[in-house]
Amino acid sequence: IILLSGVLFVGILSEDPTDSPDPEELVADAAAGLASEPIEGIRTDTVENRLGTVQTTVEIAESLPDRLRIERHELKDTRENHSSSNHESADIQIHNGSERWAYYEERGEAIRSTADGHWVSDTTTFGIVDRQQLDQYEFSYQGTETVAGRQTQVVEIEPSTSVSAEFSVEVGAGQYKQSISIGQIDDEEWQVAEETWWIDATEEYPIKQQLRLLDEDGNEVTTKARTYE
Question: Nearest to residue 139, comparing CAs of 31, 5, 18?
Fold first, then answer.
C-alpha cells in the first residue's frame, strides 16, 4: 500500500482518446507532488543490463524537507564479479531534521551524526525530469494502466536534446546513500532515450518511473525503474 497524505482513493478514468489530458501538465503536477507530498510505502528500485540485475526493496516514510525513515527489506544482485562492499549500506536510516542515524544489523552498530542542512532526498531526484525546465522535454500521453492496484495515467517523456546518464543504482537515501556502479562498458557514454511515468490518477504522484538508456549506436544498454506499493 502506498499512502499519500494519509488518504487512499480509487480513481475511475475515461478511455476516450478525445478526453486525453495534457501530458506536460500531468508531469508538472506529478513533479510538484514529488517535491512536496509526504509519502509512505514499499519502494523497489531495479537496474537491468547485460551484466545482470540489481534490485533494492525498502520501506520508506518521508516528509520533506527533512524527515525520513528508510528500512532496507531486500537487496538482490545477480551480477558476476561485483564487489561485496557494494552491500555495505545501512539497513535502517533515519533523518529527523537535526540528527541522522544509520543502523547496520550484521555489525549490530548504529551511527549517529549531526544534520548539516544539505540533505537531498533521492525521492525527488530519480530520473531526468527537471520540473523547472519542462520546455526541454517532449511528452506523449499513453493512456491508463493499473499499477499496484491503483489507476494511473501513463506519460512518455523524451529529452529534446541528448542527455547523458550515470550508469548506477542508488541504495539508501540521504547522507547514507550509496551509488553502486553497474559496470562501465569500455568508455562509452550513455544517453537517455526516454523516461516513462505512471501517475496516480487521483493523487497526481508518479508511483512508477522507468528510464531507458542507449549507447552511442542507439542500442539499449540498461533500464532503471522505480515502483511503489
Answer: 31
